[in-house]
């Protein structure tokens, strides 16, 4: 009898968790399946202008075609407004020019210049360009004018500020 009670006490919460997970997954799927909101034309044009300044040897941004930028690789839009809210362009390979990694040698990193056309993404809250190779260019000043930006990752992207910080860290390590 005690074994039955213990099994029941374990099984009931487990079933509850399983049902909760199934309901959550169905709700998440229904939110994406019935999304009828398309990318805003001004923001699509801003992304296309941004892409012009980038070198993309791996063709990672080749999905950036068509009218709906909400379906482009690395771009996510608000389900209700169609505004671009996320640009997730982190390279999966480590591409820093300092180490000349295998990814750098294969040319899979984004590089080039960053266009101020990003300022036209008025609801952009997340920007990740980490792991790319911007070959020592300065971090553009306009980045500081992205008013709705809440997350910014430029780490390991070979911007000049990153190189200076790395150099200072190395000097401090040698001194101490």
Automatic annotation (TrEMBL):
Domain Leucine-rich repeat-containing N-terminal plant-type, first and last residues per copy: 42-78
Main location: membrane
Record keywords: Glycoprotein, Leucine-rich repeat, Membrane, Receptor, Repeat, Signal, Transmembrane, Transmembrane helix
Residues of the signal peptide: 1-27
Ranges that cross the membrane: 154-175
Membrane topology: Single-pass type I membrane protein
Superkingdom in the source lineage: Eukaryota
Keyword ATP-binding: no
SUPFAM superfamilies according to UniProt: L domain-like
Keyword flag Glycoprotein: yes
Coiled-coil intervals: none
GO CC terms: membrane
Entry's localization field: Membrane
InterPro entries attached to this UniProt entry: Leu-rich_rpt (IPR001611), LRR_dom_sf (IPR032675), LRR_N_plant-typ (IPR013210), RLP23-like (IPR046956)
PANTHER family from the UniProt entry: LRR RECEPTOR-LIKE KINASE, OS11G0565920 PROTEIN
The protein's name in its UniProt record: Leucine-rich repeat-containing N-terminal plant-type domain-containing protein
